[in-house]
Amino acid sequence: MPSFLREFRRRSKASTKTDKTSSGNDGQSHSSSNDSRSQDGTTAEPVPDMPRNKSSSTLNSIFGGKSPPMPAGSPPLPSVPSISGSHTNLAGMNGSKTPPLGSRPGPSNNNSSRYSIAGSVNGSPKPSPYASPLAPRVISASEGSWVHQKVLLIYGQVGDPNQPLDGDITVCSHQDCFPPMTWPVSDSHFKALVYLQPGPNRLRLDFIPRQRRPSQGQMNGQPAHSSHFQINYLPMNSSPPLHLAILVAKDSPRTFDAVPDRVKSEGNGLETAVRKFRMAAYLWQAFTGEQMNRHGFGRRCFRFEEEWQPGTLTGRDLTTGQMRNEAKIHIITLDKTVAEIQDLNLAQQYEPAKQKGDMFAIAMDAVKNHFKPRPGQKEYVSCMYLDTHWDSKVGTVRGHAALGGGDAQVKLAIFGSHSLQSYPAHLEEVVPAFTDCTKTDTNYVANDCNESGSNWEAANIGIGAHMHETGHLFGCPHQESGVMLRDYVRLNRTFTTREPYSTRTKSQGMRLCLQQDEFV
After folding, report:
1. Could you tell me the superkingdom of the organism this chain comes from (predicted)?
2. What Rg value do the Cα atoms of the chain yield, rounded?
3. Which H or E element spans position 403?
């Protein structure tokens, strides 16, 4: 039969056939039209009569069963191709016109390196085509886990720890939202502080050995030893924030104690104090979140009051003027003069002092006047006195007290600025600050409690003791060990894998600081 007659016959049958059925010997109903046309236009082999499925969802039946009647006013259903190629049921619904064949989309040939945020959250990231045995491995946090702090402390390894390697690891932030940060690798172990933005963060970690062979070059423009790690940051905005404040006397020169070299290289003014205090606070947060997780409480920690401002967590933001959402530092002017703040009778470490608690009362009055808490509204504030001063003649620190507590309205912690010169101001300075063996020059700065004989030890005491008082602010009492005792003298071990010579113990520090060594 000519092809045009076959086409005419098929269309005629599709448009005029009614709901005819044929009954077999078993009494079951069968479809009366099994004639079909394949996608290339040729006549397909008739489909044998098969028993109809009694299920109501027979529209897509591969056996060509009749379609259920359409409700009045309903739009036509989209064409769904059947395995046999038969479209007679759909043709009956749409008149004599045969619906077009649906085409299945082919596999994507897109080789773009871009990735979907949703895909990275709900599924594993696309594996790298090249996996080096020296690719960094994060072992302190699980892939895809959730944290609640902007700066996260991670710990990991490269290669086989039994075959130790030294080098550097570079952490590249999600969507380049933060400059790459480089951290040392010691005996195949590394610790790093990672800047996170709210939501999913897919990080790339690149390991570069110290003695790199030419064959260990780059592949596809990236270092050969690379891995990816995903972490999710969820800010706890429903929790009350911890406010950070610097207290200055009404006639303050707005400077803090520092040796001449430090004054020349980085300054000792209020802006430098703000950067260092902010960085120290993010170290508190990273430390707290990690310690809570290690002890089975999850990554619980406090949050800061943050504001949109020029970024300081990386030194590169100072030159680029990059704006970021970072911890706000309140500058509170006291109603006291510098002389009143530095009165020896108020100095906590001065034995003959009679009013050692007045420094806390002065700060409390200033904080309440600044924040003006309403009844039932509780504020949490950690303060630093900027006008603290080391008196080398008397041998004590003026304008300083380390206290934490509060009342029903304000929970308060106070500390001095006498160790501030040793603090890091940016993430790039964290490891250098905790490994700086420069001897403390007591002509200019204090050796607090005779445990700050070098810069890195002064950073331990200043950052750690202030964190201790902030713990009291949150209601933590003294403990038998840990930072709520005096274990903050080893705070450096939390953030570094090497420890320098200690003037406190008069011994060489640990060659390798692992997690189990941090409070030994």
Report:
1. Eukaryota
2. 35
3. strand 403-406
Higher pLDDT, 170 or 89: 170
Supply the DSSP symbol for 459: H
What is the DSSP secondary structure assignment for residue 98, as one 8-state letter? P
**Token pair listed for 296:** 């089975």
Distance between start and end Cα atoms, the chain: 95
- Closest C-alpha to 416, from 456, 458, 372, 373: 458
Nearest-angstrom CA–CA distance, 458 and 422: 6
Angle CA(410)–CA(411)–CA(412) in degrees, nearest 5? 105
Measured distance CA(483)–CA(404) in Å, rounded: 14
Quote the tokens at residue 167. 């080098």
Which position has the higher pLDDT, 329 or 69? Answer: 329
Burial of 260 (0-12, 13-18, 19+ CB in 10 A): exposed
Q: How far apart are CA 111 and CA 155, in angstroms?
A: 32
Task: Give 241's DSSP letter.
Answer: P
Report which secondary-structure segment, H or E, holds 287: helix 270-294
- Picking from 74-83, 131-140, 171-180, which range would have the lowest pLDDT averaged per residue? 74-83
H or E element, residue 470: helix 455-473
Average pLDDT estimate for 80-95? 42
Q: Is a pLDDT exceeding 60 seen at residue 116?
A: no
Share above pLDDT 70 across residues of the chain, in percent, rounded to a whole number: 72
User: Which residues does residue 422 pair with via DSSP β-bridges, in sequence order?
Assistant: none
Beta carbons of 227 and 205 less than 8 angstroms apart: yes
- What angle (nearest 5°) sits at the alpha carbon of residue 183, between those of residues 434 and 294? 75
Q: How many of the other CB atoms lie within 10 Å of CB of 518?
A: 19
Q: Tell me if 440 sits within 8 A of 453, measured CB to CB.
A: yes
For residue 481, what are the contacts with CB-CB under 8 A and spacing of at least 6? 487, 519
Q: Which domains does the chain have, with CATH numbers?
A: 1-64+79-99 (no CATH), 121-233 (2.60.40.10), 242-517 (no CATH)
DSSP count for the chain of H helices, then E strands: 11, 21
CB 43 within 8 A of CB 6: yes
Report the sign of the C-alpha dihedral through residues 395, 396, 397, 402, in that order: positive
Contacts of residue 149, defined as CB under 8 A and 6 or more positions apart, other chains included, come to 196, 233, 285, 286, 289, 299, 301, 303
Active site residue 469: yes
Q: What was the pLDDT predicted at 256?
A: 98
Parallel/antiparallel/unpaired status of strands 403-406 and 242-248: unpaired
Is residue 227 over pLDDT 70?
Answer: yes
Evaluated on CA atoms 232, 233, 238, 240, the torsion sign reads: positive
Is 152 strand, coil or helix?
A: strand
Is the confidence at residue 159, as pLDDT, over 50?
yes
Residue that is written with structure tokens 């990236």 in the block: 222
Closest to 406 (Cα-Cα) out of 381, 372, 385: 381
430 backbone dihedrals φ, ψ, rounded to 5°: -65, -55
Contact status, residue 35 vs residue 46, Cβ threshold 8 Å: yes
